[in-house]
Amino acid sequence: MLHFERWKIWSIVAVCLFGLIAAMPNFYSDAVIKSWPKYLNLIPHNKINLGLDLRGGSYLLLEANIDKLKQNWLESLVEEVRKGLREAKIGYNGLGKTADSVRFRIAKPEDAASALAVANKIRKPVGSLLLGGTGAPDLNVTTEDGGNAIILTPTPEALNQRISNGMSTAQEIVRKRIDALGTTEPSIQAQGASRLIVQVPGFDDPQKLMAVIGKTAVLSFHALDESKSVEDAKASGVPPGDRIYPADPVTLQRNPNQPKEYLLKAVPEVEGADLVNAGSEFGQQSGSPEVSFQFNTNGALKFGKYTQQNIGHLFAIVLDDKVVSAPRIQSAILQGSGVITGNFTVDETTELAIQLRSGALPTDLTVKEQRTVGPGLGADSIRAGTIAALVGAAAVACFMIFAYGLFGVFSVIALVINIIMLFGAMSLLGQTLTLPGIAGIVLTMGMAVDSNVLIYERIREELRSGRTAIMAIDNGFSRALWTVFDSHVTTVVAGLIMFALGAGPIRGFAVSLTIGILISLFTAWTTTRLMISLWLGRQRSVSRNITVPVGHDFFPHDLKIPFSKWAAIAVIGSIALNAASLGLAFTRGINFSIDFKGGTLIEIHDKAGSANIADLRAKIGALGVGSPQIQSLDDGSNALIRLEAQPGGDSAQAAAVDKLKSALGDAVEYRRVEAVGPTVSGEITKTALEAVGAAVLAISAYIWFRFEWQFAIGASLALIHDVLMTIGVFSLTRLEFDNNCIAALLTVVGYSINETVVVSDRIRENLRKFKKMPLPDLIDSSINTTLSRTVLTAGTVILALLSLLIFGGSVIRSFVLAMLFGVLTGTYSSIFIGSTVLKWLGVKRDWSGARAPASATGAATKGA
Predict the structure, then answer these.
(1) In what helix (H) or strand (E) does residue 427 lie, and over which residues does it extend?
(2) Closest CA to 452 of 520, 539, 533
(3) Tens digits of per-residue pLDDT, 268-290?
(4) How far apart are CA 699 and CA 707, in angstroms?
(5) pLDDT, tens only, 543-552
């Protein structure tokens, strides 16, 4: 275990250097990187992206109106059928769409075959055979009433393709609109079949952002039916081919004298798809803001021909099914350009021009969730996270050096390499660093040295049993191998579940924690072992009597605490506390954040220096948005405002935020705005329960595979105990339980099983070693032997968490408190719950448990 061939040494050094090189760009500005010599261009220049919570910006979760996509398709099918029947000179009636099909009847039975041929001609293949499509028709054509009625119904495959294409189009159009705002590095990602996640760094006004990207912006030019008024059409029926369109509410508000409704030809003369450009300008005669537009050749020909033939008549400019302008044609417009007027403001013409240039969205987009972080809070978060990371690193380093002397120094060097390689890996993968991600890094520092603690404590034990220095160190590494592996795999499982089922900050935490844990396996098993191997070689060249720098022991060597005698009391107490936790959760409830119950959270900074809570409560209370909860933060200049979920759904939620901002005006700075609609909050709750359940099941399955079913049941009950106890603390203390706390619960699950694995490995080893020792005595001996490891690993994690609690800021305080309590209860359950269940269930003495690879010489059978 301690011998390294030269190629292995250089391989380890090369991997560490590559991690350092990959991390280097994060420590230099872009200007400095550009000035590097050409030979440095071989170095990857990727940097870790800062999340919105660290540099400010807006986050929107948008949901597309899938039903409208379907209805738009059906409407286009109606027009295709009408055109086909007219060209074939087939009489028909009753042509129209239902909820999921297009239907019509033929006037003459002898035209049935021709009409069916027209319907079949409209069908198109789904997808492309070359690209993996089925090639099947997109429409099912059926008949009723002896063939006189024909129905065209979209197939599920064709509808899914329409939705997929529509979402791809929407994603690209949203990207174009955001790019036109001049922002940098926007992120637009699809989520599921009908949602888009939009993140725009440096843009902290989600209302303005939504005004630009959310409007469908379907532009069309229609002829007015001047043969009758809207009132007559309503009284006698709308003429075939006509439709009543409402006036645009904003335009109507500014010009109350214009008609409220217009009777227009349903089929547009020119469509917005023929636009090639649009811009904002001031009218040459009026001096008012207006939108200019330019058609392509096809649109210019159609627009010129129509205006030439209809001089003196009105025509309507329709945007999103609302008439924004209805001017009279004074002369033919042959240049293929024109203007849209409508008493716009400058901002409105700019937004409209952006929307028209980027194209029309295929359907409506609704805000389901929005989060905004101001640049001030982002800077504070970076400062707090950096301080917490530095303090945590220093605390863990001092602890390890004090506990293990020179070997502790080796651990600190390995920890530094671990963090550098973590930054390098995140840079290469293009990961985004969030504030919870920083928490993951700090927690990684505490858990990374866990491997070294396991190894060093085993070395101490081997030395106490009379082994030579070289043999003790070799046995310490070899016998701790699978304990280290098992304990880290369980945390990685929790991290992977967080990444798969979580979103936003939880994923950031999961990425940094998972990558950090995986790298810690490498550094503990190669880097630390290599340093100790080189040290041993130097010591052997000086003297044959090698003294291992074991540091300071925190526990006596011959502990004989009778844990089994207290087990029944501990378990009864745990059951009582778990029952109390459940009782508190059901009666007192949990202080859920808006993530789980919907609503709005706004953190403000009073520019005058002191936030007047009474004044804020009076202003907001008068808005009719429910009963606001307002509390002072930090030095009194900041305040946190919570609004309950608004009746009326997601649109009402956004309107409440607009009302509040209007009421508070410019006297405050908005450091953070989060609005979660009821739909998303319900999904977050469901996903959270699934994530915790999946973590418990996955980890229990792994323990069953690596040990035996009795161990798995004990571990599962210990996990459930820890989760229930943590929930009870949240209910008792009324700490806010937000989405980040789910990450804390999952990490507690991973950490708890980490501790349980250490005890279980020693119990398994002793079962083979002491065939006749009574099981309670054997379990007590195993717990006493591993107690120093259990407590010391908990100590390193607690040191890291305390730095986060003190310096990490209020945003992640609930998360850190959940983790702190979880570490404590996880340590307790690893000693009392899992081992007690094992004692009650019993376990085979002759069980081989050889589930580790045979190549791991002695590791699987010797335990830890």
Answers:
(1) helix 375-428
(2) 520
(3) 888 877 777 778 888 777 778 88
(4) 12
(5) 667 777 766 7
Q: Kindly state the helix (H) or strand (E) to which residue 208 belongs, with its residue range.
A: helix 206-213
Of the candidates 823, 822, 843, 828, the one whose C-alpha atom is nearest the C-alpha of residue 711 is 843
Contact of 749 with 695, CB cutoff 8 Å: yes
- As a whole number of Å, the CA-based R_g of the chain is 34
At 342 the pLDDT is: 65
Cα–Cα separations (whole angstroms), residue 52 to 55, 237, 371, 374: 5, 54, 9, 9
- Answer yes or no: do 511 and 654 share one domain: no
Phi-psi region of 812 (alpha: psi -120 to 50; beta: other; left: phi over 0): alpha
Residues 149, 167 within the same domain: no
Q: Are 209 and 248 in the same domain?
A: yes
Give yes or no: residues 693 and 727 share one domain: yes
609, 750: one domain:
no
Measuring CA to CA, which residue among 850, 50, 629, 751 is closest to residue 373?
A: 50
Alpha-carbon distance of 818 to 824, in angstroms, equals 10
432-433 and 49-50 strand pairing: parallel
Residue 617 is part of a domain; what is its CATH number?
A: 3.30.70.3400
Containing 477, the helix (H) or strand (E) segment is helix 469-501
157-160: list long-range contacts, CB under 8 Å, 24+ apart: 157/126, 157/127, 158/126, 159/70, 159/73, 160/193
Token pair belonging to 599: 């609503």
CATH number of the domain residue 77 falls in: 3.90.1070
Same domain, 709 and 660: no
Calpha distance 415→799 (Å, rounded): 15
The identity of residue 185, as a single letter, is E
CATH value at residue 786:
1.20.1640.10
For residues 717 and 764, state if they share a domain. Answer: yes
Number of domains in the chain: 4
pTM: 0.71
Distance of CA 125 to the CA centre of its chain: 36
Q: Which residues contact 248 (CB under 8 A, 6 or more apart)?
A: 319, 322, 323, 324, 342
Classify residue 47: in a domain, yes or no.
no
Residue 863 maps to a domain: no
CA dihedral of residues 580, 582, 587, 591 (deg, nearest 10): 110
Q: List, as one string, the DSSP characters of 516-569.
A: HHHHHHHIIIIIHHHHHHHHHHHHHHH-SS--------SS-TT----HHHHHHH
DSSP run (H or E) holding 580: helix 563-587
Non-local (6+) Cβ contacts of 626 within 8 A are: 643, 644, 646
At residue 294, the 3 state secondary structure works out as strand
Q: Is 433 helix (H, G, I), strand (E, B) or coil?
A: strand
In a domain, 550, yes or no: no
Last residue of a domain, one of 307, 333, 365: 365
Q: Which residues of the chain have pLDDT under 50?
A: 128-133, 847-864
3-state secondary structure of 335: coil
pLDDT on residue 848: 44
Q: Which two tokens stand for residue 321?
A: 């099914």
How far apart (Å, rounded) are the C-alpha atoms in residues 640 and 835?
45
CB 190 within 8 A of CB 62: no
Domain that holds residue 182: 162-365
**How far is 336 from 340, CA to CA, in rounded Å?**
14
Cβ 211 vs Cβ 350: under 8 Å: no
Q: Domain ends where: 136, 154, 172?
A: 154
Which pair of structure tokens corresponds to residue 640? 């946190």
Residue given tokens 């998360």 in the structure block: 815
User: Can you give the CATH number for the domain in which 324 is found?
Assistant: 3.30.1360.200
Q: Is residue 42 part of a domain?
A: no
Looking at the structure, tell me whether residues 396 and 293 fall in a common domain.
no
Alpha-carbon gap, residue 664 to 661, rounded angstroms: 5
Instruction: Report the run of H or E that residue 325 belongs to, with start and end.
Output: strand 322-325
> Which residue is it, tokens 């049993």?
465
**Inter-residue contact 54 to 505 (CB < 8 Å):** no
